[in-house]
Amino acid sequence: MRLLTGSLLLLVLAFLTVPLFGLATGGDWLHATISADDLRAIFTSISGGAVALVLICLMGTPLAFYLARGKGRMSALAEALVLIPMLMPTLAIGILLASFYGPEAPAGEAFARIGVVLTNSPAAFVLAAVYAALPTYVIAARAALREVAPELEDVARTLGESGVNLFFRVSLPLAQRGLAAALALAWVRAMGEFGIVLIIAYFPQGMPVRLWVDVQELGVPAVFPLLAVFLAAALPLPLWLGLRSRRAAL
Fold it and tell me: In whole angstroms, how far apart are CA 25 and each of 170, 218, 221, 230, 234?
């Protein structure tokens, strides 16, 4: 029985790691290069993703704390509104955002008057990344904040802490490991978003869209250098945090 279980586990792990072998064996590494357009896509994804991550942290952390501590119908409604974008196909979200923030829509026109164009622009790329990754961060951060024992916050209140000070000096430090993991998940989600970006931020092209364009124009073997950069930018942080959390739990 133990042999059968071990064999099944090895089979599943082998199945999951097949794409990594494809990275080493599938590309035409001798002739493939990174073009100027690829370099621009790398810059767009990393810079836009970093800006999006800051906005996600600022907007999502208070909401996650409210969901972690809130009770009643309003909290349930707020959680449902966070979950809806996670359940929607990303292409649908992109189309709906284009209809709301597009140049002919009232919101799009209002932002354009102050110089912010929210379609096919760097701001649109950040907007797409935020919409893609914010719900993921909020749900993961809510779980991290729920693990903070309310008794510890009660003790801090008896010592004079309350409100914002209580959050920043007690709740946030106690949940920092889980919040870091939530940010790492949001980073991967923002970096890898394709559907929303394809609709409202095709230009400037980030790495996912550029990979798609290169596959259409050059074929799969030619895109492996850009794919390697994409994976190197997206994966190390969440992998490191995941392994660190596992060691801390042992």
Answer: 49, 18, 10, 17, 21
